[in-house]
Amino acid sequence: MIVTSDTMRELYRAPEPDVLAALLPDAMLDAPTRKAVLVRAGGLLADLRAAAVDGWVNRFLQQYRLNTEEGIALLSLAEAFLRVPDADTADALIRDKLGMANWAEHSGQSDSALVNSATWGLVITRALVKEGEGGGVLGRLVARAGEPFVRTAVGAAMRVMAQLFVMGRNIAEALERMEAKENRGFNASFDMLGEAARTAEDAERYFAAYGHAVAAVGKAGNRAAHSVSVKLSALHPRYETARAGACVPALTDMLRTLARAAAAANVGLTVDAEESERLVMSLEIIAGVADDPALRGWDGLGMAVQAYGKRAAAVVDWAAETARQSGRRMTVRLVKGAYWDSEIKRTQEAGLSDYPLFTRKAATDVSYLACARRMLAADSLFPAFASHNALTVATILQWAGGRRDFEFQRLHGMGAGLYERLVAEEGYACRLYAPVGGHRDLLAYLVRRLLENGANSSFVHQLADRSLSDAELLADPAAKIAGVGGARHPAIPLPADLFPGRRNSAGLDLAEADTLAATVAAVRAAGPVHAVPLTRGVVAGQGRLVVNPARPEETVGSVVEADAALVARAVEAAARAAPGWDATPVEARARMLEAWGDAIEADRDGLLALLVKEAGKTLGDAVADLREAVDFCRYYAVRARLDFAEVALPGPTGEANSLRLAGRGVYAAIAPWNFPLAIFVGQVAAALVAGNAVLAKPAPQTPLVAFRAVQLAHEAGVPADVLHFLPGGGEVGGRIVADARVAGVVFTGSTATARTIARALLADDARPLVPLIAETGGINAMIVDSTALPEQVVADVVTSAFRSAGQRCSALRLLCVQAEVSEGIIAMLKGAMDLLRVGDPADPATDVGPVIDAAAAAKLNAYRERMRGRWLHSLAVPEVGHFVAPTLIGIDAVDALDAEWFGPLLHVCAWRAGELEALVTRLNAKGYGLTMGLHSRIAGVADRVRAAAKVGNLYVNRSMIGAVVGAQPFGGEGLSGTGPKAGGPHYLPRFAVERTVSVDTTSAGGNASLLSIED
Q1: CA spacing 20 to 30 A to 248: which of 499, 631, 781, 879?
Q2: How many of the other CB atoms lie within 10 Å of CB of 827?
Q3: CA torsion angle for 642, 646, 651, 653 (degrees, to 10)?
Q4: The sheet that has 905-911: what strands, in order across it?
Q5: Is 937 helix (H, G, I), strand (E, B) or coil?
Q6: Dist CA 833 CA 835 (whole Å)
């Protein structure tokens, strides 16, 4: 059973001041203790400044801070260069990263000869790069040599940089390096580099590497008591709450196997920390291993605790109790934390109630000290304090008194000078956290380390800043936090307050086990819904049954569809109601929209159940659909207040000019089934708030969720005669569009249907010209060059192509990979696809649900069979339900794909270095222009694609789906739609007419304002 104590649950999203109020007493120092700590810390500062190696790192960070062009360039180059296999792209990366920054400003500025040497190397490289493009002596030299020596020099520099942070390329090399003079007296905890497994093969390889490391350390006799660190996410590619039933037992077995091997070899084994959403699972796995009878009496089991987490102190208490119950002394490695920025972003994107971590650096320091005090007081724990902060170390030394039964830890490559005297002269133990692996594996690790230790708030960075005094460096974090009352950092708003002028939609934390279980239960318990047209003159009836596309035998509800007479009556009623609605103040209309959004959010369980059962959406996709609907309501309310305010215009004296927007009359909103709540609500909300009466027709496949949405709109105050719900098929839409009283149409769907609507709107010569807002999908390509990180590419491809069963307008249809890296990326992609579960979306472990109906499945499967000879990879699917197997289809060129296949079918082709512009030109020639993705670490490539691509939405180094209202307005061009973009600042005026009024004020006897002008 997953560990979920009430304390852990309460702390997870608790307000920051409340958590810190409980921690501050343990972090406070009385005056005598504070005085002693400052004396000790001052000595440690002197040791740090005197350390030559650490001085180089500090001075390097001082010269190249991460908030400068040069710092970002170095970080980007280090992250990407060593994985680029082809010379052309490597040269382009060098030009991009080194050619723009001003390295000369840094030459001779440091008192470190090594830093100055590196700077002069960068100055010369920049000269080679820049003059190589424009001529000159150096340029001619580069042209003659083909830039190989520049490339070689940069590669060597990057490898030297890597060696600063990696102990060895393999465990044997790392063990040998630990015998070097500079590491004498230190122990090591070896970490096999690998951020997380993406495939089952990755997990197997990492498991073998950990086992080999344990054996090698044990075979070496463990003379220095070295240990091995294990990252659970490297041992299972689907280490997530929705898969806890499978991954937790599997990981417990693997960790138990490694622990037994470590115990037999007398080698310590520490479980590294993970992201916050994995904490409860990690504790269950560690507890399962601690309870192993075969490990009784072995004190080598350890775990890491991240002090930036609000639950850190509770985890320390948990570890102490678990160790006590299992009859051992467990090592706890206390760290500040490794995923702070990504966890902040994830919480904001998910719209969660609060952050799982502290938003101030000083708050993390307070948590660290409070945890340290608890660790020192727990007899069942062996404390390991990982810190580069002199004040933290001095405080722990003061609290420990004469004790030596604990250790300090520092990162290899950081913190040298802080502990040498403590180890050699005072007998304290210190362990190096020592990454082991090839330079290619280093990349993600290196970037995270530099971000952590190069950030302006980090102690390592501050130490290198000569403008900071010792008093500033050693300021009391508890006093800082007490001074602000533990308040959250003002620059980091709560997710609800992320967008100015409106409340962000509330998300559901499906990574929290209790929330996930409650959501699943609510979805499964929901009963059938019976929808009828919502307009005057309804005749009740049994209607047509609506079934679950994943389980066609299950009836979700029924719908009575509108007939011709009902459509006519609805248009008549809407036409009568439109003038009064348009005359309603925009503020009142905006408030109704906000009330509608609140009502949708309040009815979350019922709407999620319909999205899952009627539309075949997975739980995560259903939550995203609902949140987008809420965001549309609130965003368009904000925009309406701005766009529909009367504007005074300039003119000659004696004349008053003004401009205002007004509703067009009756607007038709024709929505698709793939976003049956979000797009439906977004269309209707925009038309309503612009002052129009609305005839809302949902897709025939998904009338039930739209019916409930309209009910909620009426309950929120939208008059029934203003908003009419007219379910039915294409004939209903045809009748609505054909009526001359309809003054505008907003439509999302196929290009063919959009053309039909456009022709219908022009068929009657006596009818006014009617605007059509259409969004019609596309052939959406992602371009990947050889600088891209393959693990990130694969994750984004799987998300973009297969989430929602490929049934998003923005979904990835065509993957264009640079030939030099295509084999490896495709192999990794196949492995990631094998981990996808296709099935009932009501099951939280499902990744890919059904397509919408039998007709869609038949069309997609027929095409898939025609392309069987081109399959690169395919998955199995359930026999019952409207499923299409996620399939990877190889094609020779972009031109081979000439239609949009609206499902989980991904086409792949290769391109070569130097063909980028031609590739974008061929993609543009297809005429579609909705979304495009790009994965590249070369900023110049992104600039070139941005300038050339004719698409509405370009996504760089991220997935291609999930546009956020107000942040990423969505819509295409060409065959992909008319614009303007939904969720953007130019959308509402398209639903309105513009009216100006000009008044000659002199006609009433002159312009009195002229009389007030003085000489």
Answers
A1: 879
A2: 16
A3: -130
A4: 871-874, 887-890, 905-911, 814-818, 781-784, 931-935, 953-956
A5: coil
A6: 5
Q: Could you say which of 371, 430, 633, 809 is catalytic?
A: 809
- Look-up of token digits 């036409």: 575
Short-list 348, 388, 416, CA closest to 473: 388
Helix/strand/coil (H/E/C) assignment for every residue in 378-435:
CCCEEEEEECCCHHHHHHHHHHHCCCCCCEEEEECCCCCCCCHHHHHCCCCEEEEEEE
Please choose, from the candidates 755, 731, 748, the residue with its C-alpha nearest in 3D space to the C-alpha of residue 807: 748
Say whether 775 is catalytic: yes
Strand ranges (DSSP E) for 497-547?
529-531, 544-547
DSSP 677: T
- Least confident residue range of 61-70, 543-552, 581-590: 61-70
Strand order in the sheet with 723-725: 723-725, 693-697, 666-670, 742-748, 772-775
With H, G, I as helix, E, B as strand and everything else as coil, classify residue 429: strand
Q: What is the pTM of this model?
A: 0.93
Which stretch of DSSP H or E encloses residue 430? strand 429-436
Contact 962, 625 (CB under 8 A): no
Look at residues 587, 599, 589, 548 and name the one whose alpha carbon lies nearest to residue 710.
Answer: 599
Classify 5 as helix, strand or coil. Answer: coil
Provide the CB-side half-sphere exposure for 780 (13 A, CA).
35
Structure tokens belonging to residue 833: 């696809």
The pLDDT of residue 96 is: 82
Nearest to 613 by CA among 363, 282, 841: 841
Beta strands in 193-321 (DSSP E): 227-230, 268-271, 301-306
Q: Which residues contact 163 (CB under 8 A, 6 or more apart)?
A: none
The first and second tokens of residue 296, run together, are 């009784």
Quote the CA–CA distance of 836 and 443 in Å, as a whole number: 27
Distance CA 250, CA 10 (A): 28
Alpha-carbon distance of 770 to 667, in angstroms, equals 10
Q: Which residue has the tokens 């138990």?
A: 256
Among candidate residues 60, 72, 19, 843, the one with its CA nearest the CA of residue 487 = 19
Reference 626, options 643, 644, 609, 645; nearest CA is 609
Nearest-10 Cα torsion for 617, 619, 620, 622 = 50
* Residues 702, 615: Cα–Cα separation, whole Å: 6
Phi, psi of 705, rounded to the nearest 5 degrees: -65, -35
- Give dist(CA 356, CA 354) in Å, integer: 7
Query: What would the pLDDT profile of 615-655 be if each residue is shown by its tens digit?
Result: 999 999 999 999 999 999 999 999 999 999 999 999 998 89
Is 809 catalytic? The answer is yes
Span 492-520, pLDDT tens digits: 999 999 999 999 999 999 999 999 999 99
| Separation of alpha carbons 662 and 691, rounded Å | 6
Q: Is 499 helix (H, G, I), strand (E, B) or coil?
A: coil
Q: What is the rounded distance in angstroms from the CA atom of residue 855 to the CA atom of residue 985?
A: 37
Q: Where are the beta strands (DSSP E) in 274-329?
A: 301-306
Distance CA 783, CA 945 (A): 9
pLDDT band at 222 (very low <50, low <70, confident <90, very high): low
Cα 430 to Cα 592: distance, rounded to the nearest angstrom: 63
Torsion of CA 206, 208, 210, 216, to 10 degrees: -140
